[in-house]
Write a structure and sequence with these properties.
heterodimer, A: alpha/beta, Rossmann fold, six-stranded mixed β-sheet, 17 helices, B: mainly alpha, ABC transporter involved in vitamin B12 uptake, BtuC, binds adenosine-5'-triphosphate, binds magnesium ion
Chain lengths: ~500, ~325
């Protein structure tokens, strides 16, 4: 079906999110929307799916004007959406989440769990996701949860599927998988709308593009008629010079020494999530950690940050002193910081404003709040990281996804750590901000910061790291210096078995 | 520009407007309402609920609940009375300690604090849901009250305590002074201190707060302890007012406190709300009760009216929160 937006405008207090946007999404094609963080992409998708029933302009489906008062109405019209943020209910199983609100019934109104599990199994297989339909969602990793969100949209048999950054939490293998499925959907004549900040995947999957800047449409056309540089110019409004990697000279001083780290499985006895992990982190070094989903990268960072004191064993030295952290508080006191993966669940207090979120880890320095200092600190990061917001007292809930991610980064940078853990730090960040962050990281590292960087993006890890550890099934399976590492090496080492 | 501020201001001014309209309505229907003595009366009557509800606000902001405050009030009230009247005897040591009025009050506050800390300890150490932990304390503390008083009121506590309950200071009733101080202290704590910020953070997203290095258990312990202590202050006020500690004092007071918190715009799911909102909530309940009495409405209808107000408050609040 042809989905069309005509003269759509939408304002929030202090922000004009969309300004007279008109565009068309064609059936049998992947229509991509590009734009910087806060350009209005998600807002547009939310209007198209009834999340925001109030807007100016009109939506047309196959030429017929529709006005969705709720998400349900949009669903009934055949429009499904995968939201940018995860929206699963942690306590429910995968299958229960997939069928939430449209459960299948048998006679007498009883739930037909057999059939729901069967369909769940089928769609999970299609996504090559190896988990049981009865697994509670809270046990899944962020990337797996993202795939479950995708499965939910696939199950609805919608004619139009809107995907808001579906790949931000996925690694290349899963992205390829998703692309395969999208090609099938395309062949069935479905209309796909796609948002992503990953330029390389767009040229593989997209047919048609639209660029938004500050809520205004600044360009649209066929992907084959454009180039990456052209798209970036449209998004950013100027040329963006992507700088080649400059090798930083690092000292030989080891700031963190990890030896024989083991982490037990939380539910299965005798099984280990991490086994025999040892490595050193030097001052001024960016140590990349690469691996496929489920390799144990996040768990490694969590364990070192004091999140699993009960089921982990390790020897840890920070600047030559032996340490064991029983809580994040202790880790933070010793100069560690942890940019977590899931900004909504772990990174931010969405109901608090930007300044309050940024200052949270450093509040304990004084018993009294210091609003002025807090505001200035936030102001400096809002400028430095280009967080798009009307004020530093804006609630984080009202920020766009990428800008929320920047607040998480700001929060941890503001602790002035000695050792910074980053778990997929550029998730959802636009290309310009990403390169600015890379520059900032290089600068911080030159000033003596050490970074442990987990990333599923191979180019990112290759650009930034001085050394790269590869993990598979809870063990270290590769250790490369930047000069010897390339994509093939990393992938080969990351494969289990 | 300043969105959060405006939003909160709007929400608060809404409950203020509601309070004002309620006062106006009652004043039109009854000419006794706007007399000085009646207004002081209203303030004195709400002072107990204000003390308890302030503590409840902190608990609810943290996405918790404290059902034990009514019983804790009764027990600490009884302790206050008992200490003042009988003192404290260690029979085995042949030791007797007598208590002044101030000593009795401090003893009661200590007992309230300890009971609250026990709540917090059970909740944090054994991960018992606050609803269950404080429900248990509701019966435990009531039982302790019965044991301590043997089911009989402890009366005739002397002029010192009576002054706390019925006296005036600089033209203002003493209970009103006390609740005013409580409110000022806790408005300050909740707005200006790191501790206050942590309470909001835990209610907003406990996991993110923990990852930011906040010692969640210690904050929870402190908040439940404070809620117990504030209930004890309420207990002292009730005992002082009657010049007698009743074993069944404070029954269902937890419900009035929760009602004040909710009417005042604090969300039961935590993270959003304010102490000042709660004070307005307590005032709305107090004025409503007073008005219905002045208008000779049956006490049964008063209960119905209170329930309706709670519903209205929450529904209006929900509608306001829906954005876009
Ligand atoms: N509920 C809201 N209240 C106030 N402002 C909002 C709200 N939702 C979005 N905005 C603002 O509208 C603008 C557009 O946001 P939107 O989420 O559409 O951006 P986006 O293009 O999806 O960005 P990203 O790439 O970071 O996901 C932003 O400036 C954002 O701060
Ligand atoms: Mg978005």
């Amino acid at each position: 079906m042809l989905l069309e937006a005509r003269n759509i405008s939408k304002s929030f207090p202090g922000v004009k999110a969309l300004d007279d946007v008109s565009l068309q999404f064609y059936p049998g094609q992947v229509n991509v929307i590009l734009g910087e963080n806060g350009a209005g992409k998600s807002t547009l998708l939310k209007i198209l799916t009834g999340v925001y029933p109030q807007y100016e302009g009109s939506i047309l489906l196959d030429g017929k004007v529709l006005r969705f008062g709720s998400v349900r109405e949009a669903q009934r019209a055949g429009i499904a959406i995968i939201h940018q943020e995860l929206n699963l209910i942690p306590q429910l199983t995968v299958s229960e989440n997939l069928f939430l609100g449209r459960e299948l019934h048998r006679e007498l109104g009883l739930l037909d769990s057999t059939e729901m599990n069967r369909q769940t199994q089928a769609v999970l297989e299609k996504l090559q996701l190896d988990i049981a339909p009865q697994t509670p969602v809270r046990r899944l990793k962020v990337g797996e949860q993202q795939l479950v969100e995708i499965a939910r949209a696939l199950l609805t048999d919608a004619e139009v599927i809107l995907m808001d950054e579906p790949t931000s939490a996925l690694s290349d293998t899963e992205i390829d998988n998703l692309h395969r499925i999208i090609r099938d959907l395309k062949a069935d004549g479905k209309t796909i709308v796609y948002i992503s900040h990953k330029m390389d995947e767009l040229f593989r999957i997209a047919d048609h593009y639209t660029v938004l800047r500050d809520g205004v449409m600044v360009g649209t056309g066929k992907m084959e008629d454009t180039t990456e540089a052209e798209l970036i110019r449209l998004m950013v409004g100027r040329e963006l010079k992507i700088e080649a990697k400059t090798l930083v000279t690092q000292s030989d001083e080891v700031v963190m020494r990890v030896k024989d780290l083991d982490l037990d499985h939380p539910y299965v006895r005798q099984r280990k999530v991490l086994e025999n992990i040892s490595f050193n982190l030097k001052r001024g070094e960016i140590l990349g950690i690469f691996g496929l989903m489920g390799a144990g990268r996040t768990e490694l960072l969590e364990t070192l940050f004091g999140l699993h004191p009960g089921r982990s064993r390790y020897r840890l030295e920070i600047e030559g002193t032996a340490r064991q952290f029983k809580s994040p508080q202790e880790a933070i006191r010793q100069g560690l910081a942890f940019v977590t993966e899931d900004r909504k669940a772990e990174g931010l207090i969405l109901g608090m404003d930007i300044a309050a979120n940024i200052s949270l880890p450093t509040l304990s320095e004084t018993p009294m709040l210091q609003p002025q200092r807090e505001k200035e600190l936030a102001r400096s990061y809002v400028d430095q990281l280009a967080i798009k917001t009307p004020s530093e007292r804006q609630l984080c809930r009202n920020l766009s996804g990428g800008n929320q991610q920047k607040v998480v980064l700001a929060k941890w940078l503001s602790t002035r750590p000695k050792i910074l853990f980053m778990d997929e730090p550029t998730r959802g960040i636009d290309i310009k901000a990403k390169h600015e962050l890379y520059e900032l990281m290089k600068q911080l590292v030159a000033d003596g910061l050490s970074i442990l960087l987990v990333s599923s993006e191979i180019p990112e890890i290759l650009t930034l790291s001085d050394r790269i550890l590869v993990m598979a099934e809870g063990r270290i399976t590769g250790d490369f210096s930047v000069t010897e590492a390339d994509e093939d090496h990393l992938l080969k080492a990351a494969l289990p078995g | 520009m300043n969105l959060t501020f405006n939003n909160q201001l709007l929400r608060k001014s809404q409950s203020l407007i509601a309070l004002f309209l309620l006062c106006l309505l009652i004043a039109l229907l009854s000419d006794k309402f706007l007399t000085t003595s009646n207004l002081w009366n209203v303030l004195r009557q709400i002072s107990v609920n204000v003390c308890i509800a302030v503590g409840m606000t902190l608990v609810v902001l943290m996405a918790g609940i404290d059902l034990s405050v009514g019983s804790v009030l009764a027990f600490s009230g009884a302790i206050c009375a008992g200490l003042i009247k009988f003192g404290f005897a260690f029979e085995s040591l042949d030791l007797f300690v007598g208590f002044t009025v101030l000593g009795g009050i401090l003893g009661a506050m200590l007992v309230g604090l300890l009971l609250g800390l026990f709540n917090g300890w059970v909740i944090t150490r054994f991960v018992v849901p606050p609803f269950v932990a404080t429900l248990a304390m509701l019966t435990i503390a009531r039982g302790l009250t019965m044991l301590y008083t043997k089911g009989i009121p402890i009366s005739n506590l002397g002029p010192g305590l009576e002054f706390i309950g019925s006296g005036w200071l600089l033209g203002i009733p003493v209970p009103v002074w006390i609740s005013l101080i409580v409110v000022l202290v806790f408005v300050f704590i909740s707005r200006k201190t790191a501790f206050g910020r942590y309470i909001y953070a835990i209610g907003g997203n406990e996991k993110a707060a923990f990852l930011s290095g906040i010692n969640i258990n210690r904050i929870k312990l402190a908040v439940y302890g404070l809620a117990g202590m504030l209930a004890a202050i309420g207990g002292v006020l009730v005992t002082a007012r009657l010049n007698s500690a009743q074993p069944n004092a404070g029954m269902t007071y937890e419900l009035d406190a929760i009602a004040a918190v909710v009417i005042g715009g604090t969300s039961l799911s935590g993270g959003v709300g304010s102490v000042t909102g709660t004070v307005i909530g307590a005032a709305i309940i107090g004025v409503l009760n007073n008005g219905l009495v002045l208008l000779n409405v049956s006490p049964f209808w008063q209960q119905v009216a209170k329930g309706v107000v709670i519903l209205l408050a929450v529904i209006i609040d929900k509608m306001n929160r829906k954005e876009a």
